[in-house]
Amino acid sequence: MRKIVIAGFAIVLMSGAAFAAAGLSVREVAKVKASDADVWAKFGAFCAIKDWHPAVANCEESSEGDAKLRTLTLKDGGQIKEKLTGTSPTGYTYQIIESPLPVKDYFASFSAKPDADEPGTSIVVWSSNFAAKGKPDTEAKGVIAGIFKSGLEALAEKAGK
Fold this sequence. Notes:
Helices cover about 35% and strands about 40% of the residues. The chain has about 160 residues and is of the alpha+beta class.
């Protein structure tokens, strides 16, 4: 049993090291006028991003072995393949496997939590760590920040309806 716990701890440390090793990070937050449970029920499924993100035309889930994947088809025709790496009751983590985005070693998390200051309201957080690929760091960060901002704005608007 002790070996299993130590092995599990080592895996968590290695994942955290991979998440932190990329160097660049983006974190966007939105206040949403709905409980975290309601936000997650409506928007938290791995492929639900197609229902709220304005750049995503479609999302298809698949699996490779034990890995759960999603392929996002963007409205401009581009595709992004992502792997689900972890879940919680109101959150998930994922990494990009293939993408036209100017990033590599991309790991991200998406979650909702109650807003302690305003009952019935939640805070949705989307954050990532990555390295730039083929573009300057500032440009890569700007692309990811734009994706996060437009997505969270749309999510907050849809949640309030």
